[in-house]
Description:
By secondary structure, the protein is α+β, with helices and mostly antiparallel strands.
Amino acid sequence: MVYVGIPKGQADQEEEVLKTIQDGDSDELTIKRFTESREKPGALWHIYAAKDTEKIREFLKKVAEEQGQENPVDHDPIHDQSWYLDRSLRKRLHQEYGVQGWAIVQFLGDVVFIPAGAPHQARTGGHVHNLYSCIKVAEDFVSPEHVKHCFWLTQEFRYLSHTHTNHEDKLQVKNVIYHAVKDAVGILKANESSLSRP
Length: 198
């Protein structure tokens, strides 16, 4: 989080931000960072374990059906980012499916790392609930430990409708692997003579 803009003279907005942080199930230490240390909160995240993805997907489909919404085959309630799990839905998800996530408030200067495949909260088309005007820098990467999971995500994206924003292969896993292997082979060839000596 490289910038957080807090308007001057709007004490009511500060109270609203505090209520949002509290309703977001943030811990006491996080609340103290805002109330006592006067740090600048930029965004509220809810992050879930990748292993709970199917349970969350099933829960969102169930809630959609209860509200009379369709669940088309070529859409996905997680990748569509059409749901915001408010406090009552998060509580219900925990009670009915045993799924509980982590609430993270990102303050100015904080970095939030989202593990591969971890569903994270979406609100109004984004991945995060902004508390104040803010600017963040995001970087996606594929680690060797998570290549298998990234392939799995790429397969999920293929089943989305052709007009879906996530239909394309954003992760480019095959290209990442190709270039990683190419670089590794290049380094080995460059050092071939030193490697063959006893």
